[in-house]
Amino acid sequence: MLVSQKKTWTSNEIGALILLPTRELAQQVSQIVDAFAKPAGLAKFTMISGLKKIDEDIKNFKTHGGNILIATPGRLEAILGKFPDIKKQIKSLEVLVLDECDRFIDLGFQKSVTEILAVLPKQRRTGLFSATQAKEIEEMVKFGLRNPIHLKLTDTALKSSSATGKIEDGEEIPIAAPDSLTNYYAIVPADQKLSALVEFIRNKPDAKILVFFSSCACVEYFTNVLKHVLKKRNLFAIYGKKKFTREKQIESFRKTTKSVMFSTDVMARGIDIVDIDWVIQFDIPRQSSWFLHRSGRTARAGRQGESLLLLTPQQEAYVQFLENYEKVTLKKIKIPTVTALKAEDLRKKMIKLATNDRAYLLDGTRAFISFIKFYTKHDCKVVCSMKELDMVGHAHAYGLLRIPRLGETKDRDLSAFKRSDVDTSTIKFQDKAREKRRLEEREKKALELEAEATQGDEDEEQGDEAKEKPRKGKKRSAKEIKEEQAKKKRLNKEKAREHKELESDAKLLQKFKKGRLSKSELDNLV
């Protein structure tokens, strides 16, 4: 398209802009564009957040230029602000592409995209590509496109309205259904869910497997735990914002056979690894439309692929929901090697890890909290409600010593939870530096509380002294002063005793709340 518009492009003319939501996808597209741009005599330039410093990108672009600009929205917006000259070079733009444009909305890039669109020439060809439809995309279409034509790709051959050869607005273009992909689901009790994942991976020793979790905290925690369980497999993980680590993990997973990758939905879009055999969805996706994005990471380039969704008995209606609204059919399977005994053995291993290293204790709690928060925000509350969630079962699957106090757990019956007798305050970090910091912070906090208590006593004494104004017209005798001082001393002693009693009662009440004292024992001691 660019070559047909002009035979030659100077290095400072930007003819095409491709915006992508993540740096991994941008890098992948950049590699693909290379194969087409160089033979056509076009220069490509990539601006990706986290890859280089902004000033370095600006310097390189001034030196080398680029006819095809590939960028993430945040980085391009920042460069537009620091390097105004690029606005002149972008006036020659002929083509704008926004790939996975619904993800711009999910990741909070609407403002950046709006700022970018505002500086682009109005006369241009624009393509917005998305596998899902959202109301926000319609708003983006209104702002970013003139005379838009909406094309919908379908998996069934329909009559084309474009008999003249022209593409009509709203036309449905038939595409081949991915019949090489088979979707399965398995129903397992919540407390056996992690054990089911372990057993399934063990049952597929030669498969390359991608596992989706609901949050970064879950990916980090379960990766660290399962390294002690799946010792014969190469385990990789993508979580957090460390660019180098993410790229290295993706590349290692790409090159390694019989490996397992744990990931959030960052791997659900665009990242192309053709030899993934199985996709496992440990949790339902945040949006039901993401199910296809996740399962679509397998069965690529004509290969056979399979996906598995793990559900609890309370979530079984989700299968029908997917069939009705996402037109996805799932087949039910069983994982025969899953047993309650194996799940309990795995829970005990996780408890042991947490009691030996505070890092596991904190990571497990954080992962559980992130899962609960995720479950309050997914888009399928009709069939997967928080009220029906097996809170205790999931807490067991996460290997928790205590269920954290949350608004979502406040009114739940948690009596079936297998609470550990270990005093969690005594659990140390295996990392000596972290343990040293913990002890220092604990000591600092204790000193601050002590200082606050002392200051409170001083303020109270000063208040009492201020009230004791000398009586006008009458001089007190030495005897009266002595009696008053003795009375004050006695009152201060009583206050100190009462304060100690209150502290003691508070400690007993805390023990009662933690289950270390029964109601009758508390009544006898108070």
TrEMBL record:
PROSITE patterns: HELICASE_ATP_BIND_1, HELICASE_CTER. Its EC number is 3.6.4.13. Keywords: ATP-binding, Helicase, Hydrolase, Nucleotide-binding, RNA-binding. Coiled coil: none annotated. Residues 448-526 are annotated as: Disordered. The keyword Transmembrane helix does not apply. Residues 493-508 have a biased composition (Basic and acidic residues). Residues 193-347 form the Helicase C-terminal domain. The keyword Transcription regulation does not apply. PANTHER family: RNA HELICASE. This is ATP-dependent RNA helicase. It comes from Steinernema hermaphroditum.
